[in-house]
Design brief:
- It is a single chain.
- The protein folds into two domains: 101 residues, Leucine-rich Repeat Variant (Alpha Horseshoe), CATH 1.25.10; 94 residues, Alpha Horseshoe (Leucine-rich Repeat Variant).
- The protein contains 13 helices and no strands.
- The protein is mainly α and 232 residues long.
- Helix 4 runs antiparallel to helix 5, helix 5 runs parallel beside helix 7 and helix 11 packs parallel to helix 13.
- It is globular and about 55 Å long.
- The N and C termini lie far apart (43 Å).
Amino acid sequence: MTIAVPDSALADAVLARLTEIYPTAANPFRAQEQIAYMKGVAPFLGLRTPERRALSRTVLDGLARPDEQDCTAVALRCFALAEREYHYFAVDYLRRYVKSCSSDFLPVARQLVTTVSWWDTVDPLAAHVVGGLVAADPALADRMDEWIDDDDLWVARAALLHQLRFRDATDARRLFAYCIRRSWNTDFFIRKAIGWALREYAKSAPGEVRAFVEEHRIRLSPLSVREALKNL
């Protein structure tokens, strides 16, 4: 079910500024390079990340801190715009204000994960937004148990990556179970995510990760194994 955009005066102000300020720095030549690099997933304005974030500070200057309804409106309205930089703005906005959102925001995050899906938005949404929500409400981990088996590979990737920043607080049992549950998948982005998630946890528990990989090496893809053990 598609989530409707709620009313938000703050979102009105943000979007008015955003769609006025971002295009002033558009670079059509750089945009073509970005489109090619991102495999044509979306059109671009041609803004480099430091430049874009500087413009974002101007957009947000003097505006109030959002509540959950504002975050929902800003994010959904940004993702409804064509150019990828607006999606990046939404992701950065949610990363900044994820603590303003309750567990009820998770369906919104899922909708964003499945909108114009590619690693450049899915990964930060997973690690900083979905992960932030789960960290604040561990009961949401049960929803991750549903996401990991989802037919949409990007939803499954988000489940694999949502603990990227948990470090010592990582639920290792759940992480390892997810890796096994998706180990059959031949998709590059799933296999890469398995290895990445293990590699990050290895920074906190190298022995556990090494033992897991050795025990299940026959089930894990060479890509997942290589990524998991890269820094060990």
